[in-house]
Amino acid sequence: MSLPQARIRFTEEEYLKLERESEEKYEYLDGEIYAMAGEQQEHNEICVNLVAELRNQLKGSPCRTLSKDIKVRTGPEPIPGRSPQGFYSYPDVLIVCGERRFHDKQKDVLLNPQVIIEVLSKSTAEADRGEKFKRYRQWLPSLTDYLLVAQDCPLIEHYRRHGADEWVLATFEGLDARVPLPSVDCALLLQEVYDGLAFPPEQR
Predict the structure, then answer these.
(1) Range 47-61 burial, b when 16+ CB lie within 10 A, else e
(2) Which of 9, 64, 73, 184 could be bridged to 31 by S-S, CB 3.0 to 4.6 A?
């Protein structure tokens, strides 16, 4: 997320109307609207690799890979006349299993992702580790796995739900590493995730 466009508070309905009529993408946090930051080439390549790898492995299963153009909503149900407390975000990559649940008939806001993957950048890393993950933990009971993928070195942080309120962190580093995702019966090979990217020998 980047800085808010203006210190104006919007309802969720106003945000959705504005966002759906705009060619740009915006995220929403408790009444404020944030323009999506631009992506570096490495960020885009990693996202494409993730989608391709997961789609191949999940083919034939009840799980599907989604990316970029679908929002996720977290937060309590909005109450008219009360201060807004919702969060609408655009994760880099999603996995949803079984029936998809949507916010409304537009079907562009998902409510039940099982896996969320964010590719880190300097402008988003703090929010991805902090406020975003806090909201996901609190308001997404469907979420079993949260992955943070570095783009400047081959490294993935994998947060896995262990019980209702406990999350376990495992870190995988180097192109030979493999991230198991037993909740969706697949795994990520860092060599495939970072295919096409060049790193210094000490980072490989």
Answers:
(1) bebbbebbeebbeee
(2) 9
Paired strand residues for 168: 160
Read off the amino acid at residue 170.
A
C-alpha distance from residue 19 to each of 58, 66, 154, 169 (Å): 31, 19, 34, 34
Q: Which residues of 182-199 are buried (b: 16+ CB within 10 A; e: fewer)?
A: ebbebebebebbbeebee
Name the residue among 143, 78, 134, 81 with its Cα closest to residue 111.
143
What does the DSSP assignment read for the chain? Answer: ---BSSS----HHHHHHHHHH-SS-EEEETTEEEEPPP--HHHHHHHHHHHHHHHHHHTTSSEEEEESS-EEEESSPP-TTSPP--EEE--SEEEEESS--BSSTT--EES--SEEEEE--TTTHHHIIIIIHHHHHHH-TT--EEEEE-SSSSEEEEEEE-SSS-EEEEEEESTT-EEEEGGGTEEEEHHHHTTT----TTT-
Write the pLDDT tens digit of every residue in 67-121: 878 999 998 876 666 667 889 999 999 999 999 999 999 999 999 999 999 999 8
